[in-house]
Amino acid sequence: EKGGWNSFMAKEISEGPEAVENTMRGRLADSHVELDLGALDDEALRSIDRIVIVACGTANYSGLVGKYAIETWARVPVEVDLAHEFRYRDPVLDERTLVISISQSGETMDTKMAVQHAKAQGARTLSICNTQGATIPRESEAVLYTHAGPEVAVASTKAFLAQVIGQLLFGLHLARVRGTMADEAIAEVVAEMRELPAELRQVLAEQEAVHELAHWMADSRSVLFLGRHVGYPVALEGALKLKEISYIHAEGFAGGELKHGPIALIEPGQVVFVVVPSPRNEPLLHSKIVSNIQEIRARGARVIVVAEAGDAAVLPYADVVLRVPLTLPMLEPVLQVVPLHIFALELATAKGLDVDQPRNLAKSVTVE
Ligand code: M6R
């Protein structure tokens, strides 16, 4: 039950820290990650030369975050595909390809069929799933359960955090098995991952600004989201959540794409959320996103930034600042997405909508 919360979505957002803790539980050693992937043993993981991630919706966006981490750490090329696009194509796969499916429910029809499509062509298969014993993990050679706990609200929130964590764990495991990352470097990521639950609690405790924003924006007709690198999937996720439960037109863009079209949408008063990487971690990316902000502000956009607590450089460019604690670049999405989830929830609530049962949507899409 909702345990005192007004909606399952609100309850599940509040459960983010435990979801992340439970996904990591028993899997973090000091300088490595312990994963038992059954048939996908070290030898199998050394034999693959490519990874394809297949998923839908929010799970697909978590896969985009996973791609950056796995490629950086394990030096294996990763593609991310929508399961329904993948299954109706003729993708190039063989026994050296690992197809990772990501699904909260483990019952999404297109994702299940994508796994079957992959198996039929001899690819290896791993399922990252939140539901014990669901169909997709049963169809896969190996499974990494996310242990986020049951997710009832149609809008996926804590499961996204756990899916990102699951892929970070897998990426570190693969990096060790393939010898692409020194123990000290793995230890540094592990140490930062251990901080995430406390940092998430801090983010959840400091969302007064989001609340005010949502009330102020309840009549908006269109909201844009911008990000780069791992902030790009965060932007896509922020936009999806807003569409889903508040029925406001929303789009996510990669910062570098602005000049290739989307900047034409900017007119005075247009609200744009910008996901900003920490300047301490990523000075170059930070300066690129600040340039994007300058470009849209010059055209009258109202800019709401999600930025790291110590980032003073972004202040002159923001109308509203939503703060998150400093972490490593690949871990940033876990913290940055939370204010966007809360924003969607608060805005839909301000509009008087049923956030748990948005129109036209089902929790799991088991038909086509
Ligand atoms: O159960 P799954 O993770 O396979 O579901 C995939 C999507 O249907 C799901 O993430 C959907 O996009 C959510 N409603 C997003 O909030």
UniProtKB/TrEMBL annotation:
Enzyme kind, highest EC tier: transferase
GO MF terms held by the record: carbohydrate derivative binding; glutamine-fructose-6-phosphate transaminase (isomerizing) activity
Function: Catalyzes the first step in hexosamine metabolism, converting fructose-6P into glucosamine-6P using glutamine as a nitrogen source.
Residue positions of the active site: K363
Lineage per the UniProt record: Bacteria, Bacillati, Actinomycetota, Actinomycetes, Micrococcales
Record-level GO BP terms: carbohydrate metabolic process; fructose 6-phosphate metabolic process; protein N-linked glycosylation; UDP-N-acetylglucosamine metabolic process
Principal cellular location given in the protein's record: cytoplasm
E.C. code: 2.6.1.16
Oligomer and partners: Homodimer.
Superkingdom to which the source organism belongs: Bacteria
UniProt protein name: Glutamine--fructose-6-phosphate aminotransferase [isomerizing]
Organism this protein belongs to: Agrococcus pavilionensis RW1
Keywords: Aminotransferase, Cytoplasm, Glutamine amidotransferase, Repeat, Transferase
One Gene Ontology CC term in the entry: cytosol
UniProt-annotated location(s): Cytoplasm
Gene that this polypeptide is encoded by: glmS
